[in-house]
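> run fold histidine kinase
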Amino acid sequence: MTLIIGALLFGLYKQLNMEQNYQVSENLQSQAQHYQQLSRTVSRDKFAEQISRADSKAVLVAWKDGKSVIGALSFMPDDMPYLPKTKDFPILTTGPDKLHILTGGIVNTKYGNILIANRTDHFSAMLDKFVSASATAIMVTIIVALAMGYVFSKTILSRLTHYNRLSEEIEQGRYDTRFPLSWRNDEFDVLANQFNKVLDTLENNLMAIRGITDNIAHDLRTPLSHLRIGIEQLINQPADNIHEHCANLLEELDHCLSTFDAMLSLTRIEEGQLELERQPVSLHTICHDLQDMAEALAEMNQQKLNIELGNDYTLNADKHLLFQALFNLVDNAIKYSGENATIEIHQDGCHLKIIDNGPGIPDEFKDKVFDRLVRLDPSRHHQGTGLGLSMVKAILTRHNANISLSDNHPGLIVSIDF
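> ok
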């Protein structure tokens, strides 16, 4: 801004200087033409009278008639050029300002050369005052700009220093640290708000990892303990009982391995590492297959499995993965809704619902049940990995489907929209 102001003032100075020179030149040229015309129309005496009566405020004129000089000036300087060329020269007066600077030139007339000049020292004084005022304005601008720049930079640096200190705390493991937001809502606040969102996500992920670790420890401790005890007891088992005992140990080991296999499969599906074998799949066909597969399980629990189909819908999907996800939902309904419950499969177009009248899921857990290794306490007496619903959501997401849970009063409604 200081450079811009300086450039503008310099341009204004040059413009004023050019305007002054133009006005002086125009005035001198006008007077020169006047006296040239006058010399052609009047006598020598009248010409001398007109020069002596010329207004000295408009222009200063001098004419050398023989040895005497007539006009406002008492002398004619040497080496004065002919107009339009001009030359500056000083004169002494009896007024308060004794020294004046004039700009003038010689004009050739019928009665000889005359000197025509304008006073220009007051223009120079005005320009000097302009230059002085401009220099003062620029200095004040520089001082104000430096002061404001210092305050502005100190404010920015103080916030950056504070952010850096908070970053070091986060680096040391204090993930609950958040960047402060000010009332200004400036770029720093926008950046701080974005970092706070990242920290919220990071903290939630860390909490999820801790929860997964706790769930792994909880769910695998019992079978691993059984394996250790079983191996210790294997030495003392009778020969005819070793085969049965080994079969029990292998069952416990398979449960542990299935948990890790499910976690690896879930990661591959979520990360897109598993290629889907897509083909046209009818939801009517999927629902009939679900009924055929799950009806026997429902009868074993003295439950009813009903199916209600509307308009068919065909989607491009991996038939085996999609059936696995939907069967997992039906199996959960059979497993947790209790005896004498009714499970219903409703399909109409791209909408699919699995409904039961069991105990349902509390509202605060409806979102959490899709996280890895999350199992509600009432379900822990059922053998499982806690990854079923996580796998369901991952498969449905890969098929561009949304899943949501709602209450059936009593029971649970699982809604899927393809």
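Residues 121-171 form the longest helix (51 residues).
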